[in-house]
Specification:
Elements (H helix, E strand, L loop, with lengths): L1 E3 H11 L8 E5 L3 E7 L5 E8 L10 E5 L2 H8 L5 E8 L2 E5 L4 E5 L21 E6 H14 L4 E6 L2 E6 L8 E6 L6 E5 L2 H8 L3 E6 L5 E6 L3 E7 L7
Helix pairs in contact: 1-2
């Protein structure tokens, strides 16, 4: 198989939340490349797909289990343009071009136990809101500045506020985004949002419901990506 190393790296970056989810599956099926995993704490899930038309040469070689996604990202970053992919045997994946070759030891079912098949159903009791990455940027920086592990999304009418800190107990930082009018919903998520932020592109949608998992959806020319992050207590 042959594909742009940049596109494949972007796929792995999203599927693994920039390497935060260490073990991931790469399923090369008849439709293309797919991955569906959850983090070790079961707080975040990712579902990622890359159509086979993106590949210059494609083969449905089945499921490959990656035991170190961060290392795979590092390897892919060392290829200048396209990378060729070959499964040497059950536990070795070869990445190569005319000047470089890397053999990657694959994982097994005993190691990669975080694969999931079913997505959460957020079709009801949620509001879908379109955002751009800059809408989140200041709040992600605020979390780092205050060393806070919670970000609250609070939709009230025509505004979505992103809140960091504990009101009346710590510094409390709010960033507001104008959104189409809708019902009031509120949910808070933890530090997983920081790794998700690094994997997101410029435009995406969120599905927000009161004290429900927050769904993030992004569709680009090459990749379809969805991530769900479980809520945490809104009281603090």
């Amino acid at each position: 198989m042959e594909v742009s190393a940049k596109i494949l790296k972007e796929f792995v970056k999203k599927a693994s939340l920039n390497g935060d989810i260490t073990t991931i599956n790469l399923d090369f099926n008849e439709e293309g490349l797919q991955s569906s995993v959850q983090c070790i704490s079961n707080i975040a899930m990712t579902f990622t797909a890359l159509d086979k038309s993106v590949f210059k040469d494609y083969e449905a070689i089945g499921r490959i289990l990656i035991k170190d996604s961060k290392m795979l990202l590092t390897y892919l970053d060392t290829f200048d343009s396209d990378v060729m992919i070959s499964r040497v045997d059950e536990y070795i994946l070869k990445l190569f071009d005319m000047h470089r070759a890397i053999s990657v030891i694959l994982g097994s079912d005993l190691i990669c136990t975080n694969i999931v098949d079913k997505e959460p159903d957020l079709s009801t009791n949620t509001e879908e809101i379109a955002l751009v990455k800059d809408d989140l940027a200041k709040s992600i920086k605020d979390m780092t500045t205050l060393k806070m592990n919670k970000l609250t999304f609070n939709r009230e009418g025509e505004y979505l506020t992103l809140e960091v800190g504990v009101k009346d107990e710590s510094d409390f930082l709010i960033n507001s985004v104008s959104v189409p009018d809708g019902k009031n919903v509120k949910s808070s998520i933890g530090s997983n949002i920081i790794n998700l932020f690094s994997a997101l592109g410029d435009n995406f949608k969120i599905k927000l419901g009161t004290d429900l998992p927050i769904g993030f959806e992004e569709t680009t020319e090459n990749i379809t990506f969805r991530c769900y992050i479980a809520p945490i207590n809104n009281d603090r």
